[in-house]
């Protein structure tokens, strides 16, 4: 789904929301069709379109399907604004000296100890600007004066993959700031402002705020999203405002619901998704320029390519930087093969031969288009397989439901397009099949997608099996270039030879 159609869909959803109490994600049950294939009514539409990555949808999907943090063993890289400043990290939440109610909320969410990113980010985000002891003289008499520093609090840019606890980290920082000021008069409440790229991602962050802050019932949250209508002249007095850039900009500049000069903490989440959405980058920068100089700026991103870095520098000047490298997916534990075929039907027959010769716990099969994926899912279902179908036109919540069923083993085969290539860990997946090899928009091999696809097997310390279907000189050329890129030989497999197939399973 292209980003502009996604944005249009979000706008339509937001327009349907009548009040803040309606801001809930619809929980739709996904049921099999008459062929036993799990899909939606929209699956048959636009089936000839190639699947395109939608970063906002992928980010939301990762949030919905993750029940635990990623167990990341990579080291954290910290680049400090002042290299001479001491570097602090924590191994427990108690070391942060949080209010008891906030600490209770953290533990209620299942966090027993800080994650890698939280160990280093939280001490920085929660550090108070130091007081300054000033020496001055009056009529030759010297006095000491203790005054608050006008220096900015710690600015932070953090890069960390989905599932590492970054959302909980900045939510904890916001709640900690607010909890310190909750007894102040209504008109002088400390405000925190958090920008999310889409309505749905804003709701997900809001849920984390509500869960972590549930033992602080006096803490109030407002959603600045289209569909939440306020009366003219009304002023937002909640402690935390979370919203999308367009609506937040309107509320600050045009409607005056928010006084940006009162914002003390500004969080920009999903920066890589933000710059991929038309208009959001400029809107975010305009909002940032309205904020006071002593406002703490925090920016988070899953990736850190040049475009993200250029954007981050405009939003967060002179920052501290924390990078948590992605878990490197490896091909060392995956046996790779290719099968020569002449057409789609022969590829399907080769697939049936594989299933007839070896025991496959669960398999993921990747196709290039929705049309091929729908056809293949239906054919496999006719052969008696329990099949789920996943593609980009499905609502994100429906995708999450399909993945959860597959994870629970209710379906043994997941036929999917590129929407499922990243971030989905199912321990029982023993085989990944590239029914179509991954290529980019110019027809060149998409090596990163290939790595992510076959990386769905060979996980959790187990050996995996990847089978690539080759049906033309062009796809053979693609395969050869993939071999060269990874410097890994991919062996040919004859699926008409049952003895040969049985050998690869040993």
In short:
This is RNA helicase. The chain contains 16 helices and 17 strands.
Descriptive keywords:
alpha/beta; Rossmann fold; 2 domains; 8-stranded mixed beta sheet
| Strand coverage percent | 15-25%
Supply the CATH superfamily name of the largest domain.
Answer: P-loop containing nucleotide triphosphate hydrolases
Number of strands: 17
Task: Walk across the major sheet and give the strand order.
Answer: 1-10-4-9-8-5-7-6
CATH fold-level topology of the largest domain: Rossmann fold
Total of helices: 16
Class per helix and strand makeup: alpha/beta
CATH class of the largest domain: Alpha Beta
* Number of domain modules: 2
Mean pLDDT: 80
Residue share in helix? 25-40%
Rg to the nearest angstrom?
A: 26 Å
CATH architecture of the largest domain: 3-Layer(aba) Sandwich
Tertiary shape: elongated
Q: Low-confidence parts, pLDDT < 50 over ≥5 residues?
A: 1-30, 39-49, 131-140, 142-151
Largest sheet composition: 8 strands, mixed
Distance between the amino and carboxyl termini: 40 Å
GO molecular function: ATP binding; hydrolase activity; RNA binding; RNA helicase activity
Subcellular location: Cytoplasm; Nucleus
Keywords: ATP-binding, Cytoplasm, Helicase, Hydrolase, Nucleotide-binding, Nucleus, RNA-binding
Pfam families: DEAD, Helicase_C
């Amino acid at each position: 789904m292209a980003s502009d159609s996604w944005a249009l869909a979000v706008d339509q959803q937001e327009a349907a929301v009548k009040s803040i109490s309606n801001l809930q994600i619809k929980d739709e049950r996904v049921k099999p069709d008459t062929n036993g294939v799990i899909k939606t009514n929209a699956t048959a539409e636009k089936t000839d379109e190639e699947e395109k990555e939608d970063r906002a949808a992928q980010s939301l999907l990762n949030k919905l399907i993750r029940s635990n943090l990623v167990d990341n063993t990579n080291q954290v890289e910290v680049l400090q604004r002042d290299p001479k400043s001491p570097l602090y990290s924590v191994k427990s939440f108690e070391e942060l000296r949080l209010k008891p109610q906030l600490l209770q909320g953290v533990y209620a969410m299942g966090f027993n100890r800080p994650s890698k990113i939280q160990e280093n980010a939280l001490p920085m985000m929660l550090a108070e600007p130091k007081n300054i002891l000033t020496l001055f003289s009056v009529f030759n008499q010297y006095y000491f004066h203790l005054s608050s520093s006008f220096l900015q609090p710690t600015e932070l840019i953090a890069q960390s993959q989905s599932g590492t606890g970054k959302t909980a980290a900045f939510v904890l920082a916001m709640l900690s700031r607010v909890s310190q000021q909750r007894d102040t008069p209504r008109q002088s409440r400390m405000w925190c402002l958090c920008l999310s790229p889409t309505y749905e991602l804003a709701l997900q962050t809001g849920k984390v705020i509500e869960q972590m802050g549930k033992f602080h019932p006096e803490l109030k949250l407002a959603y600045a999203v289209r569909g939440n209508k306020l009366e003219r002249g009304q002023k937002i007095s909640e402690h935390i405002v979370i919203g999308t850039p367009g609506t937040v900009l309107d509320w600050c500049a045009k409607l005056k619901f928010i006084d940006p000069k009162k914002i003390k903490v500004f969080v920009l989440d999903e920066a890589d998704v933000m710059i991929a959405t038309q208009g959001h980058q400029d809107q975010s920068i305009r909002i940032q320029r309205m904020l006071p100089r002593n406002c703490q700026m925090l920016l988070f991103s899953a990736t850190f390519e040049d475009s993200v870095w250029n954007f981050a520098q405009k939003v967060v000047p002179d920052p501290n930087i924390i990078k948590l490298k992605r878990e490197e997916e490896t091909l060392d534990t995956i046996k790779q093969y290719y099968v020569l075929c002449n057409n789609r039907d022969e590829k399907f027959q080769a697939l049936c031969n594989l299933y007839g010769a070896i025991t496959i716990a669960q398999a993921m099969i990747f196709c290039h288009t929705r049309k091929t994926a729908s056809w293949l899912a239906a054919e496999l279902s006719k052969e008696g397989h329990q099949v789920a179908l996943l593609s980009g036109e499905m609502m994100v919540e429906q995708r999450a439901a399909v993945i959860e069923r597959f994870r629970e083993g209710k379906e043994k085969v997941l036929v999917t397009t590129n929407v499922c290539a990243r971030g989905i860990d199912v321990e029982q997946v023993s085989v990944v099949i590239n029914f179509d090899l991954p290529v980019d928009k110019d027809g060149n091999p998409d090596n990163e997608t290939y790595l992510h696809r076959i990386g769905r097997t060979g996980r959790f310390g187990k050996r995996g099996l990847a089978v690539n279907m080759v049906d033309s000189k062009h796809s053979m050329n693609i395969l050869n270039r993939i071999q060269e890129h990874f410097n890994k030989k991919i062996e040919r497999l004859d699926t008409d030879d049952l003895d040969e197939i049985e050998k690869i399973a040993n």
